[in-house]
UniProtKB/TrEMBL annotation:
<keyword id="KW-1133">Transmembrane helix</keyword>
<dbReference type="InterPro" id="IPR011992">
    <property type="entry name" value="EF-hand-dom_pair"/>
</dbReference>
<feature type="region of interest" description="Disordered">
    <location>
        <begin position="319"/>
        <end position="342"/>
    </location>
</feature>
<dbReference type="InterPro" id="IPR011993">
    <property type="entry name" value="PH-like_dom_sf"/>
</dbReference>
<dbReference type="GO" id="GO:0005509">
    <property type="term" value="F:calcium ion binding"/>
</dbReference>
<dbReference type="Pfam" id="PF00169">
    <property type="entry name" value="PH"/>
</dbReference>
<feature type="domain" description="EF-hand">
    <location>
        <begin position="6"/>
        <end position="41"/>
    </location>
</feature>
<dbReference type="InterPro" id="IPR057836">
    <property type="entry name" value="EF-hand_SWAP70_N"/>
</dbReference>
<dbReference type="Pfam" id="PF25530">
    <property type="entry name" value="EF-hand_SWAP70_N"/>
</dbReference>
<protein>
    <submittedName>
        <fullName>Switch-associated protein 70-like</fullName>
    </submittedName>
</protein>
<feature type="domain" description="PH">
    <location>
        <begin position="209"/>
        <end position="312"/>
    </location>
</feature>
<keyword id="KW-0812">Transmembrane</keyword>
<dbReference type="GO" id="GO:0005634">
    <property type="term" value="C:nucleus"/>
</dbReference>
<feature type="compositionally biased region" description="Basic and acidic residues">
    <location>
        <begin position="333"/>
        <end position="342"/>
    </location>
</feature>
<keyword id="KW-0472">Membrane</keyword>
<dbReference type="InterPro" id="IPR001849">
    <property type="entry name" value="PH_domain"/>
</dbReference>
<feature type="transmembrane region" description="Helical">
    <location>
        <begin position="231"/>
        <end position="252"/>
    </location>
</feature>
Amino acid sequence: MGLRDELLKAIWHAFTALDVDKSGKVSKSQLKVLSHNLCTVMKIPHDPAALEEHFRDDDEGPVSNQGYMPYLNRFILDKVQDNFDRIDFNRMCWTLCARKNLNRNHLLISDDDAFKIWCIFNFLSEDRYPLVMVSEEIEYFLRKLTEAMGGSWIEEKFEEYKLQLSSKQQCLNVWELIELVGMGHFSKGMDRQTLSMGINEVFQELILDVLKQGYMMKKGHKRKNWTERWFLLNLVFTVTLMCHIYGDFILMDTFPFPLIVMTSRIPVQSLPDKEGKKCLFYVKCSDKSFEVSASDKKKKQEWIQGIQTCITLLKVGRPAPHHEARQKRRELRQKQQAEQEELELRMRELQTANENKQRELEAMRKKLEEAAANAAEEERRRLQTQSELQDLYRVEMEKEKMVRQQMEEQVAQKSSELEQYLQRVRELENMYHRLEEALEEERQARQDEETVRKLQARLLEEEVSKRAELEQIHLYQQQTISQTQAEKQELERERLAKESALQSAMQQLQQLEADRWGALEQYEEVMKKLADAANNTKSWKDKVAHHEGLIRLIQPGPKYPQKITNWGPAAFTETELSLREKDWQEKKNRPPTPQ
């Protein structure tokens, strides 16, 4: 906060105090007195005719705050320099506004403490008018005051108080803040002196920029005795003075007279205990030095750290830490307020979009209702048309029913004729199936005949092979008799074995002969079945030929006389018999194989 903003806040309190009827305007005579007092306190040359010259074109009525501001900026604030006592300036403005607004009844604080709270309010209030202090700054001030009084901060108590401020937009004006502190709402259990000391300590820190204060022992320069003094460490010099001296300096006030202490390259350093004094440190200046004894090591370290911090701030030209902390809090609130405004803007946009959507839905609902009414009318027309069509269809159905009955009668007549035709077809199919069964039986009989014939041929071949084998055995026996007497016994044994084999072969031959006769009997049975099948076929052929005259059966039969062998009649063809005869002659003429 700059000097102009700080002065405007105090002047605003004075201007509003002069506005008796709360119309926002003050008479010119009162503004003349206020302007004269401001120029006197801030050491500015006063021109009494400047006010009349400035408002020459206006009427004779009172002047508003907006009308007074151009004059204030041009003739007073633009000329002000930081060479006046700000406490006197604030006290002059306080005197004007406290007389009208301060209610001293039931207050536990003095007018001087109320003035200090008023100054603290101007420092912590927002840069907008009317001036108010937000809840974050109220909490900061009350927390500082509680710590200065040596009490403990109760968060729950302040949260309850914040709930009461919700109806007032979480802020207080200066007179409500003075009443809050003066009534002792957050200082219960503390006496008036403690409360006054706490207010004074917060005032010195926030308004007078006191970084550190307290009692310490100081060694004299001449008598070298140790005396208790009250020390204050603050930042009060301008840049011009800082450059004129060295560029490194601090201010230490010792009661009852102030001393300017200028630092060297090593302005403060710790000293060992001596002369019965402990916690010593040394402050070196350009013309003199100080030896100071703190009450304990913690206080000693705090003072050394405070002096070094003060020097660092003066070197870089930065204000006291609480100024930066206040600015950071304001920037954070502005950021939060901007985010809140952005959120509110988005909420309004969403609400507008929602309202538009609601209007669209309402219009859509009306369209749906109109569409439903149209649909109901259309449905009524459709039902009427459907009823007319049903009556028309009923008449058509009656006509169609009569036509269908006539067609059913014709279909029944055609169905009886078709049934007779189908019955005839089924009879022909049955006759055809029985004819196929007779042909199948004849074909099966011929297959059985062929099988028996092949069996007889196979038995004949086996008989021929056995006879050839017997002839070979007989020839072999004749040869073995003509051999030497020495081999007679061996040959006799072999002969007996051969005779046994011959007997076995004869038995097999007899068995084959029996099988041949059995096959011949089977062949006769098959021939009998074939003759029966042929008779059946002939009879069915006659029936079919008699019934339709369309089917003629072809009966197989030989075209030449059949030959009869021991296998039966027609067992072999002429070619097969010639091949068998030739094969038998070759085997008969072949010489026997020696064993």
